[in-house]
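Feature request disguised as a bug report, sorry. It would help if multi-protein outputs had a clear separator. Right now it looks like this:
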Amino acid sequence: MENKIDMLRRAKVYVVLDRSVVDYTRLFDLLGICVDAGADVVQLRDKSGSAKEILSFARDALKLTRGKLLFIVNDRLDIALAAGCDGVHLGQEDLPIEEARRIAGSGLMIGVSCQTLEHLQEAESAGADYVGFGSVFKTLTKPQRSPMPLDVLKSAWVQSHIPMFPIGGITLDNISQLLALGMNRVALTRGICLASDPAFVIRELKMRLSNIAV
């Protein structure tokens, strides 16, 4: 079986399944679609659910995803460890990476949300395995955040020594702007969760991103 680090390094499409966008029943359906359509990483994002709900979903999810894609839980290090997830994703206001690593050890992937070059440098220095960088475009997930200049995104991409996933308002309609900058990874939330044909979107993204050299 391919190891997690290799799976992360070759990852192109990172899907965030957000419970604030659609309910758990739909999220589980979408998870199956992600597996079948070839998504590389899936994150469960549930800012308001109980620990019991999130743990239950994570355990069910891992039955579908193990060995096929990386399954990550947002924020909840305790649940990631209890369920045996592949990783946890932390925001700038969450548990510091060093503390998360001390608790989790080396077996759990740690991803970090970054909005600036300074965030990226700090995440790398602290031992993050990957970063999500954005918001690239306007997004309802972070409505208070302004889109970043693409030259900032490009600088982060060039400087990053770990896998970086641009995120925020990315769609099939605007991904050409990222491809033109040489980027071959993206993360999407509503672009998948609310798509009329999420399988098509995932496959199309994989095809376009795979045409960009690593």
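(second protein starts here, but nothing in the output says so)
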Amino acid sequence: MVRHLRSEAHAGRMLPFVIEYHGRLVGQLTVAGITWGSMCSGHVGYWVDEAVAGRGVMPTGVALAVDHCFRTVGLHRVEVCIRPENAPSRRVVEKLGFREEGLRPRYLHIDGAWRDHLVFALTAEEVPEGLLRRWHRSRNRSTPNAGNAGN
């Protein structure tokens, strides 16, 4: 698997990341399916250890990766496709303000069957200030007495 990730990364088709929390590996995030030319797009996939779920680890990781894709790599669009029953993953994109675009029936073959996925997306124009900054700003508005924490 590591060999495949490195090969795809060197070819410019993937950006694999690991997620650490307090010095411990707790997840992975991959920007894959990177397409150049007139599309300049990729899709994000992720997982996180349930022991750290709900602490903002994955929204922070996704926001950082999306900002890197838009500002450094030069992508224009990023998608996240999530199984409809995966409420925790859906919550990540909802927190970050991804736009829901619709359902892709029988999109990926997982656990022995073709599974439906909901598509969420963002374009660079939707987050000119950066996704991490927008997310921190929205968290501060929803948390009383948050001040400038996290900015």
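Even a blank line would do. Unrelated, but nice: The chain is about 30% helix and 35% strand.
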